[in-house]
Amino acid sequence: YVRTYVRTYVRTYVRTYVRTYVRTYVRTYVRTYVRTYVPLRYVRYRYVTVTLPLRYVRTYVPYVRTVRTYVRTYVRTYVRTYVRTYVRTYYYYVRTYYVRTYVLSKRKSKNKKRKKSKKKVKKKVKKKSKKKKVKKKK
Q1: What segment(s) does the record annotate as region Disordered (predicted)?
Q2: Where are the beta strands (DSSP E) in the chain?
Q3: Rounded to the nearest 5 degrees, what angle is found at the Cα of 23, between the Cα atoms of 22 and 26?
Q4: Rounded Cα distance, 28 and 30, in Å
Q5: What is the extent of the structural domain holding 68?
Q6: Residue 69 domain flag
Q7: Does residue 9 surpass a pLDDT of 70?
Q8: What is the pLDDT of residues 29-50, one digit of tens each?
Q9: Residue 12 to residue 90: CA distance in whole angstroms
Q10: Using CB atoms within 10 A of its CB, is residue 66 exposed (0-12), middle (13-18) or buried (19+)?
Q11: What is the distance of C-alpha 84 from the center of its chain?
Q12: What's the pLDDT tens digit per position in 94-125?
């Protein structure tokens, strides 16, 4: 008789990697403005005589007594944080199939000796003897 064994192994490996990156950027901007201006209240006028080819002319000429300067500085700081998460999953499939066929025969145990098959002996059947007919005398 024949026996067939079928075995199936299915193994699955799952690996997951989770990585998180945190990056922080700090940027600082510094801007400086320097401005110089003349306040109107500090503007004065003087008389000046100008000699032209034929006559004298008196005019007002402005002059500045003070000049003001101011400096402004702006500082701006930006903080940005980036968080990135990577998830990677790896699948490993290992599948092995075993198909084995066995042919098995009925085996006799080694300990016992094989018995020889006896030949069938036909029994002799005795034939019945026939009686001889006796002829009658006339």
Answers
A1: 105-138
A2: 2-37, 43-51, 56-64, 68-103
A3: 145
A4: 7
A5: 2-101
A6: yes
A7: no
A8: 999 999 998 888 778 888 888 8
A9: 10
A10: exposed
A11: 14
A12: 666 666 666 666 665 666 666 666 677 777 77
